[in-house]
Automatic annotation (TrEMBL):
Keywords: DNA-binding, Transcription, Transcription regulation. Residues 3-71 form the HTH gntR-type domain. One of its GO terms (molecular function) is DNA binding. Pfam families: GntR, UTRA. The gene is treR. It comes from Lactobacillus acidophilus (strain ATCC 700396 / NCK56 / N2 / NCFM). PANTHER family: HTH-TYPE TRANSCRIPTIONAL REGULATOR TRER (PTHR44846:SF12), MANNOSYL-D-GLYCERATE TRANSPORT/METABOLISM SYSTEM REPRESSOR MNGR-RELATED (PTHR44846). This is Trehalose operon repressor.
Amino acid sequence: MTESKSDIIAQDIAAKIQHQQFKAGELLPSESQLTTLYGTSRETVRKALNQLTALGLIQKIRGKGSIVLNLEKYSFPISGITSFAELNKSLNMHAETKVITLKKMVDLPEFFKEKFPEQKRQPGIYVERLRVVNNEPVVLDCDYLFSPPIDELPKEAAEKSIYDYIENKLKLDISYATKVITVEKIDDKFKKLLQLDDSLAVLVASHNFLNDTTLFQLTLSFHNPSKFKFVDFARRQKIKL
């Protein structure tokens, strides 16, 4: 898939923030300066800055510009559907994905049934993937992909990006998700994989849907709480009382 100019600019600025060329608390160059620097339009620069804002890397301040936020933790957007591969690329984390488990099943794993008690029995593909940044495990993603519509999943696709495989190989249109975020005790296996001193992890439980409203995936994503922060963007809507 060809990257847009705004994607390339966002990735470049994110890399500069990560390497402290743009430091926390400092203002980025103005939109006009960035337009000249990257040889593009102001609209393209604004799209790139909007991506960085959504990722929690910068904050736009009216009349001043875009200020760089503290990057002590990786920023994971709550709203929207962003794959880890896309986040890795946007933030230049140089993360590695290790496939722990990849197998077909006739029904959900028991711990999925506990988290998704409403889900009926259905065959699918179960995947466990450990995300490692700077040799430190930060996320353990556990996915159950329903069959149909996902009947096969090559290991290479699981290592690279499941969503890229679904959208570009299977030609399915991923549309929306519902998410619940909790802090929960995890079992010894997951604690060991994430190298946690404590048994508590941040758990993001997701129902993921195609454009035709088909539920195609359930996800339990366990995060090392010391490594990630979750960001969202909310706009106030005034309601007449």
